[in-house]
């Protein structure tokens, strides 16, 4: 459980080790990178049309539906979001790695009320937008 929670938070940026911000690279164990890459493989296969390069160069201002649905898939696969769009904050924090828990608690204070969206994958995107605004230095797409 800790792995899944740590993974997604740390994953809100980019996956290859050389593309992860240095301050995050210092606390990201290799098994977490492997876990993130596994989620990425699952979600890129489900969504289709996205490459690793697309994900690694993603900017939050890109509102392409494929990216939004990729975000939703990653949140579902990590058990951060239920199919109805409910974000499981307590579940995330309960299993959070001690090194990143204070960071995530601060972000969640700003991102508790994520607006629904008429788009199928819009709430996942809205969650990412909030996180990117709350912590732009650490945000990355997993």
From TrEMBL:
Organism phylogeny: Eukaryota, Metazoa, Ecdysozoa, Arthropoda, Hexapoda
Organism: Nicrophorus vespilloides (Boreal carrion beetle)
Main localisation: secreted
Family affiliation: Belongs to the PBP/GOBP family.
Coiled-coil portions: none
Secreted listed as a keyword: yes
Signal peptide positions (record): 1-19
Protein name: General odorant-binding protein 83a-like
Gene designation: LOC108561433
Subcellular location per the Swiss-Prot or TrEMBL entry: Secreted
InterPro entries named in the record: PBP/GOBP (IPR006170), PBP_GOBP_sf (IPR036728)
Keywords: Secreted, Signal
Domain of life: Eukaryota
